[in-house]
Specification:
The protein is mainly alpha-helical and 110 residues long. It has helices at residues 26-42, 46-64, 68-89, 100-109; strands spanning 3-4, 11-12. It has one domain. A hairpin with a 6-residue loop joins strand 1 (3-4) and strand 2 (11-12). The N and C termini lie far apart (51 Å).
Length: 110
């Protein structure tokens, strides 16, 4: 699968590099968040999306100490990544993932 860079239109096939060192401006945080959201919208790799979410969490922890505006952007992007993971996983099963025969055996013991 090919991905498109949100800024340049360039075809890329990689997780966006999340900058995690040094001071970041709110504009840089917004750019990182937007780039990550565009990438996740085209990505079907749940572990890669979870990894990007964890990296955003680390950036968010840093921003907690330096910028409320940047932290809000990170939190919104992390929420959107969780929504994307939910879309990829699909709806939950009605029995909570348990096998029906196991549920019947338990019910029969009661």
């Amino acid at each position: 699968m090919s991905l498109i860079d949100a800024d340049t239109g360039e075809v890329v096939d990689r997780t966006p590099a999340l900058r995690t060192s040094g001071p970041m401006t709110t504009i840089e945080v917004a750019h990182q968040c937007r780039q990550t959201e565009v990438w996740a919208g085209h990505c079907d790799d749940i572990p890669a999306i979870r990894d990007a979410n964890a990296k955003l969490g680390a950036i968010g922890e840093y921003l907690t100490r330096t910028s409320n505006d940047g932290r809000a952007l990170i939190a919104a992007t992390q929420w959107r990544l969780e929504v994307r993971i939910g879309q990829l996983l699909g709806p939950a099963s009605r029995n909570g993932g348990r096998r029906k025969d196991a549920a019947r055996r338990i019910a029969g013991r009661l």
